[in-house]
Amino acid sequence: MKEENQKxxxxxxxxxxxxKGLIAGxxxxxxxxxxxxxxxxxxxxxxxxxxxxxxxxxxxEVDKAQIRSPRVSISExxxxxxxxxxxxxxxxxxxxxxxxxxxxxxxxxxxxxDQEFMKVYFLQDSDKSAPYWFPKPCFxxxxxxxxxxxxxxxxxxxxxxxxxxxTERCIGCKxxxxxCPYSTRVFAWKEYPEFKEDKEQYSPEASxxxxxxxxxxxxxxxxxxxxxxxxxxxxxxxxxxIYFGDxxxxxxxxxxxxxxxxxxxxxxxxxxxLEVLGTRPSVYYLPPVERQFPVDSGFNGLEESIKARxxxxxxxxxxxx
Amino acid sequence: MEQSASKEALLQKFAPQxxxxxxxxxxxxxxxxCIIGVGVYAFICQVTQGxxxxxxxxxxxxxxxxxxxxxxxxxxxxxxxxxxxxxxxxTEWRKPIIRMAEYLAIISLLIGPGYILLCIGRxxxxxxxxxxxxxxxxxxxxxxxxxxxIFGCLIFLYLSIxxxxxxxxxxxxxxxxxxxxxxxxxxxxxYTGTPEQEKRLRRATDIMAAMVIAIAIIVYSVxxxxxxxTLQPGWHSTIFGPYFVIAAVYSGTGVLILTMYVFRKxxxxxxxxxxxxxxxxxxxxxVLAALFGYFTFSDYLTKWYGSEKNDESLIxxxxxxxxxxxxxxxxxxxxxxxxxVGIPKLRTIPNITFSALIVVVALWFNRYLIVIPTLxxxxxxxxxxxxxxxxxxxxxxxxxLMAAGVALFCLLFTLASKFVPVINVSEMSDAPRxxxxxxxxxxxxxxx
Lengths: 321, 448
Ligand code: SF4
Ligand code: SF4
Prior knowledge:
Chain A is of the alpha+beta class. Chain A is 23% helix and 17% strand. Chain A has 2 domains: 1-44; 84-297, 2-Layer Sandwich (Alpha-Beta Plaits).
C-alpha cells in the first residue's frame, strides 16, 4: 500500500513536472508541509480538521491525526529519483533579502531557531564593486568533499545529484563541516524542542526530525520534489529569485515562469560560485545586474537581531549598521 | 664507567620509590585525582546537555579538544621517535633517560585519542567506525594508524621493561605486597637472562624500535592530512605532514626535558640524570627549533607573499586578534631555545628546563593557531550567523577536560614510575657496549 502510493507519487510528480512545471501553491493549504499528504486510516481521529492536497491534486478535508507525509525510508532515500538530475538557479538581480526562503525552510524542516539551512549573505567582492544579496543553500556538489571525508557514509550523493545526510548513521565527527568549503552544514549542539514537534518517521529526504549530535544541511527537499512541488525556498520567495528544475530536461521554474535552463544560463551569464575549488556545484547564480531596487532596501523591516548579523560585512561597517 | 653500577646496588637505590608512597606523593596523587574528578563532571555535563556546553559552534566546529589531541599525539610520537632513535643509536648517555621517553610515548598515546572522542557528537555510535568504515575517509586512516601505533608502542615498551620486571621479580628484598610480586613474575614471561633470551630480546627490541619510528612518522602525517586534505585556507597545505612531525618531536623533546627535571628532583636522580643529559637533549631541541622555525616560516611566507584573498584574511586575523599568541608561539618559542642552548654559558639545567617549558606552551599555542583562526576565516565570510557563532572561545568544560588530561598524564607517569623505575636498571648495569660492534650501522645481523 505504502509502496504503491510512493510509486504513484513519483509518477504523478514526473507528469506534473513535465507538463506544467512545478507549482508553488503553498497558500491554499494550511501549513505548507501538509501538501501531498496521504491519509493514514490506522489512527483514531483527533477531531481537528485540516485541508490537504491529495496526490491526484484534489483538495480534501481530513482529520489532522490521519495525515502523514509520504516520507520514504532511509534505505530508499539512498536511491535518487530515477532519471532526474536536479539543478537550482538563483537570480541575484532579484534578491532583496526578504528572507522568506530562510523562514519557510526552517519551518518546513522543523528546525530550531538556531539552525538555518538557507543563509543570505551580503557580499561585496571588493571595495569598489557593488554589494549584493546572496542566498546560499547547499550546492549539492558533483564532487562533494563532504561525502569523501565522511568516515561512515552518513552523507551520500544520489543518482539525481542530491547530497543527503542520514542522521541515524552520522557519528557527529564534524569532519564534513570542515570539508565543505562553503560553510553549508549545521550541527545540532543540543536536543532542541523543535526536534520533538515532528512526530513523523525520520527520513533523510525530509531532514526531519533532527537529532542531537549530528549534522544537517539543505537537502533540496526531495520529499516535496517527489510529489511535484518546489523546495520550500523556491515556493516561498516573493521575488521569484530561486528557480529549481532538472538539468537533463533543461527546464527550471520558480513557480511563476518556466524557463529553459541552458538559455537562461547563456543569456544571463550564469556561473557557479567559487568554481576554482573544483567541487562542481549544482547551484548556478545569475549575476546581480540591472536591479530594480536599491540594494540596502534589503535591510528594511528586518528585526534588530537579524540586522545585527550584517554588522561585520564591509557594507555594514561603512554604514554603521 | 660510573653509571654502570651493579644491578643490586641500583635496585637497592630505587626500591624505596616502588615500595612506599611518601606523604607528599600521596597529596600529589590526591590533587591529581581531584582535577580528574572535575574533568569527569565536565564530561558528564557534556554528555547530558550536549555539545552546547562547549565553545564550539557551526563555524568553529573543532576547538581546544582537537588542539589537545594534536598536542598529546605529538608528545607520543616524539617519545616514540626519541626512544627508538636512542635505542638504535646505542648512545651510552641515553641509558638513564630512555625509559622516560618510552613512558612519554605510551602514556600520551593513551590520553590523546580521548580528546578526539570528546569532539564526537554521538559517542554512542562510535562502533559505526568499524561497522560502516569507509577507507576513503582520512578519519578511517587515522583510526587504523592510531590503533597500530598503540599496539606497536605497547609492544616496544613491554619489550624494553621486560628485563627490569625480571630484575624486580628476582630482587628478594623488595617489600611489596604479594600480588605485586606475582604480577612481576607473571609479566616477566620467565625471562632469566640466558644469552639466547638476551639475544632474542635485543633483536625484537631493535625491530620494534625501528618500527615505532616509522609508525610514528606515518601516523602523525595522517593526522596532519585530516587538516590538509580539506580545502580550508590555512590547512590546504602540502607541507603539513612533515611540519606536524617536526612540531611534534620538537614539543615532545620539551616535555621530555621537563620530565627529566621533575623526576630528577622528585626521586633524587642527580647522580644519574646529569647536566650532560640536559645539554644533549637541549641540542636535539635546538636542531628541532631550527627545523620548526624553518617550516613555520615557509608555510606562512608563501601564504602571505602570494596573498590570495582568503590567505590574506587569515594572516590578517593572525596578526590582529591573535597577535601575541602568534608572536609567542612562532617567534619566542623558537628563539628562546636557540639562545639558551646556543650560548654555552647559558646552558644550565634550570635554563634548559625553562626554555623547554616555553617550547611546550608555545607549541600548544601553535596548534591552537593552526586550528581555530582557519575555522574563523572560511571561504565565504561568516555572515547571517549569530554573533556568538563568530568567534571561538573555550568554555570551562573544555578547559576542565584539558586540565584533567594533563592531570591524568602526570598521574599515569607517577604510577608507572612506582611500578617499574624510571631509570632503566638493566641497561644501566650492562657493561658499556662497544659501539662499533653493535651500533646502528652494524645492526643488519641483529635485524635479520
Ligand atoms: S556545498 Fe558543501 S555540504 Fe553541500 S555538497 Fe558541496 S561540499 Fe557538501
Ligand atoms: S559529522 Fe556525520 S555526516 Fe559529517 S563526516 Fe562525520 S559522520 Fe559523516
